[in-house]
Amino acid sequence: MAAVRGAREKDQQVSEALSDLTRDLLAVRDGRDRAAFGRLFDHFAPRLKSMLLRGGLRDGTAEDVVQDVMLAVWHKAGQFDPHRADAAGWIYAIARNRRIDLARRRPLAQPDEMPEPESLEPDAAQILTLQQEAAHLAQALARLAPEQAEALRAAYFDDIPHSRISEETGLPLGTIKSRIRLGLDRLRHELRKIAP
Questions:
Q1: Which InterPro entries match (predicted)?
Q2: pTM score > 0.85 for this model?
């Protein structure tokens, strides 16, 4: 008798600490209380829909999942244990599981068929064009001031950072940058004159 009284007192203490939503879920579980279920539905349906929409579901699918979750709440309320989770935690867990189930049922997207790449080897026309462009570039570089051509070769052909060119030549960094900028401007001008 004392054990039963102790269990009731413990349930009474737990009941006092419960949220209104958890009490409503207990009313659904213990008495199939439709009014309590209505309050749960009114509270959780819009929140679940918002969560599912943020999770990537479309509007109609999200509404279907919300209906399914709330139906599960009604039918599985007997499994609810307030000692393990509150109403919100239990209902959101059902929604999360439904969302995962839905994702698993969807067929995997098939990758688009990729076309066969064309040969990476240049054809004769491409080789000839590249040779002509290289010749034009060499002619334009030859017309630059030697210090500009040297700075451009170091920066672009040898891929040396401007600061290292400055260190190697002993010239200030600003001078190196100016030579490169002026060399590029002059090179553009020369290439316009040479190119057909």
A1: RNA_pol_sigma-70-like, RNA_pol_sigma-70_dom, RNA_pol_sigma70_r2, RNA_pol_sigma70_r4_t2, RNA_pol_sigma_r2, RNA_pol_sigma_r3/r4-like, WH-like_DNA-bd_sf
A2: no
